[in-house]
């Protein structure tokens, strides 16, 4: 089993050499895994799901150790309740994790798909075909289920993966990783590696010749640190400073339900709403009942001056508009109109998920096209921004950038492509000079690449 720990560093082992070897094994595994057929990858995924169910008691026992330590840190003020909530596993969550792995197995194979085909000349055909990225390194937060999600998606997409979870979930991550590795013993050794020391991560960031993609999940500062310390492409998952805007033409009953769900259903996650924006013309109608409902659910509320003229809540500061609470806390602002809401979102949002509640199609269009975010919803809770809910099986994270992949990153986000050219002794010289042959450059709609030509 490929695992490195902080204990290794403390006992004087050569972290740099060990990390280099781990990366070499991952690179070799990635090259072999890319050639594993879909049936092999799906069977391995089903074995992982079975192993997680079989080892439920061990997983919960390990998780209880993490939770006990986290609750002690919570009591000392070093951890938040949101972190502890994300950390906890129970029997239902174990089953959800196993079912998620099986859902990934049921997804269409992302590899080998012909993305484009073109005839360059007779019997000279060019194909663009989906292939794995290679070695993916990911650093993620306290949720132990994230380790399984990322590993499952990496396996289905033919990638090797190096996993670094938060120290607060170390016991949970170790047992889950052990279950994954033992369940996939027939796959190339080193396809799923677990590291635990910060020194190992720093060394991985230097290995741009072996690691093909880094996916950090955390704060903007953390993602910026990763980007500044590596030449490896970075697909960042940063904060979720999400907004719900209640427009003048909203169905107020529906708006109240959606705004409540977006905050209260699960406040610890990145797609929970942090700021509620309300059109000035409906503030008196919607805020009193909605605030009462929030307060009954234990939500700590803050508002701007116009909000506090309508309801009795604490004052919001400038910092509140830029804060991801990850807890039962919410800021409220009354805005002039949809364009004022758009301006606020684009200034303070994290480009994650935004939602407008309105019955006016033109206003919805203006908001949805005017807001700069990976996901923009109309009359729906921000909590729908999730790989499983999008039908992706699972997600490795939600990308708030714009390059390569955006929003919930599933299997497609873990693939790139190759060009395959099928010829019959064709020479470039034939297409050069005075008697050069012309290219046909004819698209081959529906053509699929197969070795040796279609």
From TrEMBL:
<protein>
    <recommendedName>
        <fullName>Gamma-glutamyl phosphate reductase</fullName>
        <ecNumber>1.2.1.41</ecNumber>
    </recommendedName>
</protein>
<dbReference type="GO" id="GO:0055129">
    <property type="term" value="P:L-proline biosynthetic process"/>
</dbReference>
<keyword id="KW-0028">Amino-acid biosynthesis</keyword>
<feature type="domain" description="Aldehyde dehydrogenase">
    <location>
        <begin position="16"/>
        <end position="318"/>
    </location>
</feature>
<comment type="pathway">
    <text>Amino-acid biosynthesis; L-proline biosynthesis; L-glutamate 5-semialdehyde from L-glutamate: step 2/2.</text>
</comment>
<keyword id="KW-0521">NADP</keyword>
<comment type="similarity">
    <text>Belongs to the gamma-glutamyl phosphate reductase family.</text>
</comment>
<dbReference type="InterPro" id="IPR000965">
    <property type="entry name" value="GPR_dom"/>
</dbReference>
<comment type="function">
    <text>Catalyzes the NADPH-dependent reduction of L-glutamate 5-phosphate into L-glutamate 5-semialdehyde and phosphate. The product spontaneously undergoes cyclization to form 1-pyrroline-5-carboxylate.</text>
</comment>
<keyword id="KW-0963">Cytoplasm</keyword>
<dbReference type="GO" id="GO:0005737">
    <property type="term" value="C:cytoplasm"/>
</dbReference>
<keyword id="KW-0560">Oxidoreductase</keyword>
<keyword id="KW-0641">Proline biosynthesis</keyword>
<feature type="compositionally biased region" description="Acidic residues">
    <location>
        <begin position="7"/>
        <end position="20"/>
    </location>
</feature>
<dbReference type="InterPro" id="IPR016163">
    <property type="entry name" value="Ald_DH_C"/>
</dbReference>
<dbReference type="InterPro" id="IPR015590">
    <property type="entry name" value="Aldehyde_DH_dom"/>
</dbReference>
<dbReference type="Pfam" id="PF00171">
    <property type="entry name" value="Aldedh"/>
</dbReference>
<dbReference type="InterPro" id="IPR016161">
    <property type="entry name" value="Ald_DH/histidinol_DH"/>
</dbReference>
<dbReference type="InterPro" id="IPR012134">
    <property type="entry name" value="Glu-5-SA_DH"/>
</dbReference>
<dbReference type="GO" id="GO:0050661">
    <property type="term" value="F:NADP binding"/>
</dbReference>
<dbReference type="InterPro" id="IPR016162">
    <property type="entry name" value="Ald_DH_N"/>
</dbReference>
<feature type="region of interest" description="Disordered">
    <location>
        <begin position="1"/>
        <end position="22"/>
    </location>
</feature>
<dbReference type="GO" id="GO:0004350">
    <property type="term" value="F:glutamate-5-semialdehyde dehydrogenase activity"/>
</dbReference>
């Amino acid at each position: 089993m490929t695992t490195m720990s902080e204990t290794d560093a403390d006992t004087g082992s050569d972290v740099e050499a060990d990390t280099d070897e781990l990366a070499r094994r991952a690179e070799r595994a990635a090259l072999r895994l890319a050639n594993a057929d879909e049936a092999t990858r799906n069977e391995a995924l089903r074995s992982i799901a079975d192993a997680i169910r079989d080892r439920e008691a061990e997983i919960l026992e390990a998780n209880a150790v993490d939770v006990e330590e986290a609750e002690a840190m919570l009591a000392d003020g070093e951890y938040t309740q949101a972190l502890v909530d994300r950390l906890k596993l129970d029997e239902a969550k174990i089953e959800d994790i196993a079912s998620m792995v099986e859902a990934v197995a049921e997804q269409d194979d992302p590899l080998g798909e012909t993305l484009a085909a073109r005839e360059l000349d007779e019997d000279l055909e060019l194909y663009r075909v989906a292939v794995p990225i290679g070695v993916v390194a990911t650093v993620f937060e306290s949720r132990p289920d994230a380790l399984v999600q990322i590993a499952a998606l990496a396996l289905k997409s033919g990638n090797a993966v190096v996993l670094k979870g938060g120290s607060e979930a170390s016991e949970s991550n170790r047992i889950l990783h052990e279950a994954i590795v033992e369940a996939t013993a027939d796959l190339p050794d080193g396809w799923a590696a677990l590291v635990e020391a910060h020194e190992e991560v720093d060394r991985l960031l230097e290995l741009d010749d072996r690691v093909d993609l880094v996916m950090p999940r955390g704060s903007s500062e953390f993602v910026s640190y990763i980007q500044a310390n590596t030449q490896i492409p970075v697909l960042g998952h940063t904060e979720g400073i999400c907004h719900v805007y209640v427009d003048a033409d909203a169905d107020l009953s529906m708006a109240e339900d959606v705004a409540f769900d977006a905050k209260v259903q699960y406040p610890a996650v990145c797609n929970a709403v942090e700021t509620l924006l309300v059109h000035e013309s409906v503030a008196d109608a919607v805020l009193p009942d909605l605030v009462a409902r929030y307060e009954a659910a234990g939500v700590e509320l803050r508002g701007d001056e116009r909000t506090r003229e309508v309801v009795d809540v604490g004052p919001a500061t400038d910092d509140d508009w830029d804060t991801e609470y990850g807890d039962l806390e919410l800021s409220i602002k009354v805005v002039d109109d949809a364009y004022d809401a758009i301006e606020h979102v684009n200034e303070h949002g994290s480009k994650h998920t935004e939602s407008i509640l309105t019955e006016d199609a033109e206003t919805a269009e203006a908001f949805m096209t005017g807001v700069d975010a990976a996901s923009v919803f109309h009359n729906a809770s921000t909590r729908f921004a999730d790989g499983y809910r999008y039908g992706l099986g699972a997600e490795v994270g939600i990308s708030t950038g714009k390059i390569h992949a955006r929003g919930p990153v599933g299997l497609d986000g873990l693939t790139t492509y190759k060009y395959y050219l099928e010829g019959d002794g064709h020479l470039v010289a034939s297409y050069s000079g005075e008697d050069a042959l012309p290219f046909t450059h004819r698209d081959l709609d529906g053509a699929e690449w197969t070795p040796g030509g279609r």
